[in-house]
Amino acid sequence: MTENLTQPKPETAGAWLVAALYHFARFDRYQSFRDPLQVFCDENGIKGTLLLAREGINGTVAGSDAAISALLSHLRAQPEFANLEHKESRASKMPFVRMKVKLKKEIVTMGVEDIDPRRIVGTYVDPKDWNALISDPETIVIDTRNDYETAIGIFKGAVDPKTKTFREFPDWVRNNPGLHNKPKIAMYCTGGIRCEKATAFMKEHGFEDVYHLKGGILKYLEDVPAEQSLWEGACFVFDERVSVEHGLKEGSHKLCHACRSPITAEEITSPHYEEGVSCSHCYETRTEDDRERYRERQRQIALAKKRGDKHIGS
């Protein structure tokens, strides 16, 4: 049994430490590792999601500084994850509702057989060198994220594939022969993991000079001063903060709990916005029956809040 670690008060600014992590490794015992890892996180008050697969680990979690430090030490004590890297940011409120450790076929789902970043991968580029690369006229810059993420932020001049899921990315590459028109391909994503597979896929399909942003957008926003930045907008994150900005400060976006799209303060003024029920992104694609179900859920959330509880669907 692990010792329960003292938790900070959630109302304290920046009280919660958020750790984003991934590591590709041959991890044949991933199934037996799941339950002990779930227990470890639960006992230490850690919340978030960790994905385990034969190809490694991926996820984002939050907790007290002591709890996250203990988790990272625990993971790095496993021979497969001895060199695991992570990125840290802060949240003023616990950004997750529960802790989930899941078993998956892939730790990031591309759906292409035999893509192994341990065998072939693009060239890593540190944030300090990224501006020079993407400003080179001989470089095509590609955002490997999905459309709801690119909608709120993107690197200046980047190509947006407008994919709904990462599974669509390989077909997008195959259907865009113009990607061969320039010698260099520079790719980026939120924390770096999608680019591991995306650059491996590109190199497997004949692209030679393929680069990716080490540590992803999160590391860039942490390291590169705003006045030198070529990033435009905010970076979507997969927790209740919704977005972060330079210095990894919490952004101003909110989340539509009907469709999970990030929404701006301006979009909240739309006649199609109803908290927890609809927004301008999903109003036309949901039925009135759907919206009534969402209204009932929102009423239950409000009642739970009034009682001082946190509704599981909030």
Notes on the protein architecture:
This protein has 314 residues and is α/β, with parallel strands linked by helices. The chain folds into three domains: 16-103, Alpha-Beta Plaits; 123-233, Rhodanese-like domain (Oxidized Rhodanese, domain 1, 3-Layer(aba) Sandwich), CATH 3.40.250.10; 253-313, no CATH class. It contains nine helices and 15 strands. It has a five-stranded mixed beta sheet. The protein has a four-stranded parallel beta sheet with strand order 6-10-9-7. A two-stranded antiparallel ribbon has the order 8-11. Strand 9, helix 6 (193-204) and strand 10 (209-213) form a beta-alpha-beta unit. It comes from Neorhizobium lilium. It catalyses: uridine(34) in tRNA + AH2 + O2 = 5-hydroxyuridine(34) in tRNA + A + H2O.
Summarize the structure.
By secondary structure, the chain is α/β, with parallel strands linked by helices. It contains nine helices and 15 strands. The radius of gyration is 20 Å and the shape is globular.
